[in-house]
Amino acid sequence: MNPHTLIYFDAKDAKGNVVNWTCETAAPQALRLIGWTKESFAPGDVMTITLYPAKNGNPAGRLSKMVLADGTELRDTVLGRDAVTP
Amino acid sequence: MRNSLVKAILALSAVSAFSSIALAQRERPLPPGFIREGVPKMPNPPGPAPKRDLSGAWVGPQNFKLGPVAPMTPAGQAIFKQRYPYLVGNVKPEEELPPANDPFINCDPIGFPRNLLAHSISMRGGVLFGSAPNRILIAYEQQRVWREIWMDGRQLPKQVDVKGAPDSKYYGFSVGHWEDDYNYVIDTTGFDERIWIDELGHPQSSMAHVQERYTRVDQYNMKLTATVDDPKFYTKPWTVITADFYWMKNQEFSEWFCIPSEGIEYRDSLSKPSGVQILK
Fold first, then answer.
1. Cβ count within 10 A of residue B18
2. B264 touches chain A (CB under 8 A)
3. How far apart are CA B128 and CA B148, in angstroms?
4. Mutation for testing the B interface, residue in A9, A13, A20 having most B CBs under 10 Å
5. Is B271 left (phi over 0), alpha (psi -120 to 50) or beta?
6. Helix (H) / strand (E) containing B40
7. What is the per-residue pLDDT for B137?
8. Can you give the pLDDT at residue B21?
9. pLDDT beneath 50, residues of chain A
10. Which of B6-10, B88-92, B118-122, B154-158 has the highest mean pLDDT?
11. A3–B266: do the CB atoms touch at under 8 Å?
């Protein structure tokens, strides 16, 4: 979607409760340039998502990367580089 | 609450991401046709610049520098104080994000010269120079907008939005001329004052004079310097942007829109839950 892409997903928190998350990443044409397509994944897929959470604690954030079940990585244009502790 | 959600993220991922974590310099995969981030393939040497010709597709702006913004007049400061950018850095976790009233939140027109800056977001914006009788056309990938640069010697309007004068425009009125075989100069004025000149909300008066200078260095390289002279809102002229562009013969343009209905969804499902206050 434009202007920026949103990914809606469910994840369990530490107590096992399902939380509905909203995750932002870049505009579609920017993602396309780094390998994303509309067919990259589909509703129901299980994946690992790393994101920068909202400072107010709500289940929203900016994507760093997604790792699909087959190991494929999809990264954000801005915050998609690997994170390391200083 | 916040801690439990952060734990949820940790459970999802082997690599956590917090603001205090440094970013490694791992390069992203390059799209076809690029030799490095934002730079398309080109011969070495690139070959001579054609004379009086900017036609074709360009990737950019790259290596851009914005401002510095000149000191504002009291009239400029009065408008600037009413503008709240969408994102302000270094907000502490315990602080609420300030409210925002950037017109682009609602997909209102970006306007000129902010649209030059807006391409900076993707790092690989697209610009297409073409022509029509008596004018050069510049088409922008973002928002699929175009500007008409008149080449027939006409004069720019002396005023707008008064009896006998034309209406102001988000992209202004533009005339262009070749200063020599490789320097193309565009003068633009007659702006809608709802424009934000940049993403911070600096104002631009209707009779501001924006001048762009495009210098074609060789076949594949072009440099831009855009300055604004707006004595109503600024105490002196200043440079809005300097940037490099790269010619890319077969560049294909995507549809890059701010779609109002999706913008509303974005605002309601991400911006507001993240603590961003949207002002009318």
1. 11
2. no
3. 12
4. A13
5. alpha
6. strand B39-40
7. 98
8. 32
9. 84-86
10. B154-158
11. yes
* pLDDT tens-digit series, residues B12-39: 332 333 232 333 334 556 667 777 767 7
CB atoms within 10 A of CB B169: 21
> Smallest Cα–Cα separation from A3: which of B4, B105, B66, B109?
B105
Cβ within 8 Å, pair B274-A80: no
**For residue A86, what pLDDT is reported?**
35
Structure tokens at A80: 């998609």
Q: Give the residue on B whose Cα is nearest the Cα of A78.
A: B122
Q: What is the pLDDT of residue B82?
A: 94
Spatial distance between the Cα atoms of B103 and B257, rounded to a whole number of angstroms: 14
Give the separation between CA A7 and CA A24, rounded to whole angstroms.
Answer: 6
| Alpha helices for B149-243 (secondary structure H) | none
* Inter-chain touch B15–A28, beta carbons under 8 Å: no
Q: Is the pLDDT of residue B117 over 80?
A: no
B10 pLDDT above the threshold of 70:
no
Taking residue B81's Cβ as centre, other Cβ atoms within 10 Å add up to: 10
- Kindly determine whether residue B9 and residue A50, on different chains, have CB atoms separated by under 8 Å: yes
Cβ count near B42 (within 10 Å): 17
Average pLDDT over residues B115-143: 82
> What one-character DSSP code corresponds to residue B49?
P
| Angle made by CA atoms B239, B37, B64, in degrees to the nearest 5 | 5
Distance, in angstroms, between A47 CA and closest chain B CA?
9
pTM: 0.80
Quote the tokens at residue A81: 């580089």
CA distances from B227 to A46, B58, B68, B117, B213 (A): 50, 21, 11, 13, 9
User: What ipTM goes with this model?
Assistant: 0.76
